[in-house]
Every structure is written in C-alpha cells, then in structure tokens.
Amino acid sequence: MRFALSTNWNNSRLATGEEIVEEALALGFDALELGFKTTPLQLEGFRRSLNKITIDSIHAYCPVPVGAPSGHPELYQLLAKSEDERALARLYLRETCECASELGAKVIVFHAGYVPLTTFFRSFGDSSMRIRLEKAKWDIENPHYKKSKGKALKLREKRGKKYLDLFRREFEKILPHLEKYHITLALENLPRIEGFPNADEAISLMDEFKDAPLKLWFDTGHAKVQSSFAWSKKEDVLAEELAPHISGIHLNDVIAYNDDHLQPGGGNVDFKSLKKLAQREDVLKVFEPRSFVTPENLSASLSYIKQLWS
Question: What is the pLDDT of residue 119?
C-alpha cells in the first residue's frame, strides 16, 4: 500500500525541496502531496527530485501566490461574495493546475469555501455551537443542544442551495482548464458546520458532474470533528456513503472536537473502520500532520497504519 506525505508538515522547517524529499523518503513514504505552503524556491527543488519521488497530489493553492504573506487553502474562496475574490480564486486555481500537470500530479485538493450562518441577532456557526455543547457538558443528546443543532442544520440546508448554484457557475468557468491538463479537482470535507460541500451537496454535485473531472477528498480528522458535534454521520458511515466519489484521503487524527491534525493513532479517529476505503488502489492516501508532530511519532504512525490496513 502506497502512502504520501503532505509537505505542509516540514516545509516551514526545511528550506529546499530536495531536503523535504530526502526526509520523506527516510521516514518511509513513497510519494508527496505538495502543500499550500510550498514556496517557489522549494518548487524548483521538487522539480529536480522527480527522479527520486512521485508527487501524487497538490493542495491548492500551490505554490504560494505572489504577494501573499503565506500559504493558506482559503486565501481566496471560490464561494466568496466578491466577484474580485472569486476571480483570484480561479486565477490561482488555474496556476495550481498548471503546476500539477508539470509535476505529474493528477489531483488537486481544494477547499471550496463556506456557507455563512451568521444572522443579525446571533450566529449558529462553529464557535457558538461549541459553547452550546460545552454548556450541555459535551452531551450531543442533550435536548437543548439538539434543538440548537437542529436550527443550525436547517439554516445550513436552506442557505446551502444558493452556494450550490454559485459553485456550479464557478466550476464551469475552470472546467476547461482542468480538462486541458487532465487534472481532477477534489473537494475536501471541512471541519465546520458551514463547510461546503456537505454530504448531500457533494452527492448532488457528483451526480450532476459525473463525467467531469470533479471528485471528493476525505479528511479523517475533519470528518471526526463533524461527527463529534453530530453535524454529520459518523466518519466510517460517511466514508462508505461517499466512497464511489472519493479520490483521496488525508490521514490525520483529532481529539474529538478540535481540528488538531495529530499523527494517525494519536487521537480518537477509528482508522480500522476506514480500511475498506483505504485498500482501494485508486484512492490516494496522504499523511497530513501539523508541523509539531515529531519525526519519531510520524514514523511510528506510518508503521501503525501499514499494519492496521495490511
């Protein structure tokens, strides 16, 4: 089974692409995902190292856009209210597409954006829902929390229809570029209730664009956060439901309610339940821990996952 490492883990610590490649190989990884923190200088090193390692996927936007203080997957959002921001998102997505094609990557991992839930009087968003669950002593079956969650999900569904239409229009503008370079755009599940697309929206898009280079990307930690708040189904159930449309997985772990990006095995994600999806050869498997995870813990985590999914 083949595993890649996201360069977001070590590209703030190592200056060159060559150094990043050597460290990934030494830890036992077979490939890379170029993260959204990749600099133009590091990109040159990755080009020179293609004879040593394969680049399976690229996380938009890559490399870091000119003039941006640092890389971020939501630097510009395709679902922004501003047409200027959406135009920038399309511009840098096209540049990411060209970068992927040059390096042999076939998939771009993409954060599509968010459906805002803020109203004039209150917010049903991420922070307020955390406060409600904390008051309920982290009991998702608490009647007060269930009532609040129900209102939030109803509002999320209603407002999501508008953003579903907006995404359709924006995707059709970038579709020719994806087709030209034979690149698949994979929409990542996000950890917040506002994240787009949710499961229903994702299936709707997959049905509508079934012949287009549009797929889904499953982040294990994000799915666990959503299920911990009861905003979505349990991560294994969700993965099975979306499996026909999933082109890759981000492997990271969380301690229930926070988007921790720990090494797999360091939190509460049930990776054993995801074995069926992971064993598919057409599904890319990318470790995506945060930079604070030590090389020793990451190496041990890779061994753990290989044994668990063998």
Answer: 66
Cα separation, 239 vs 70, whole angstroms:
32
Fold of 4-115+164-309: TIM Barrel (3.20.20)
In the block, which residue shows the tokens 């503008």? Answer: 173
Task: Give the CA count within 13 Å in the CB-facing half-sphere of 181.
Answer: 23
Residue located via tokens 């993965």: 239
The DSSP letter of residue 189 is P
Cα 114 from Cα 112, distance rounded (Å) = 7
- Put simply, whether the predicted model's pTM sits higher than 0.70 gets the answer yes
Report whether 3 contacts 287 (CB < 8 A).
yes
98 exposure class (CB count in 10 Å sphere: 0-12, 13-18, 19+): middle
Does residue 61 register a pLDDT over 80? yes
Check: CB of residue 100 under 8 Å from CB of residue 58: yes
Q: Which two three-digit tokens encode residue 205?
A: 């898009």
Q: Report how far residue 259's alpha carbon sits from residue 253's, in angstroms, rounded to the nearest whole number.
A: 8
Q: How many angstroms separate the CA atoms of 196 and 79, rounded?
A: 9
120 pLDDT more than 70? no
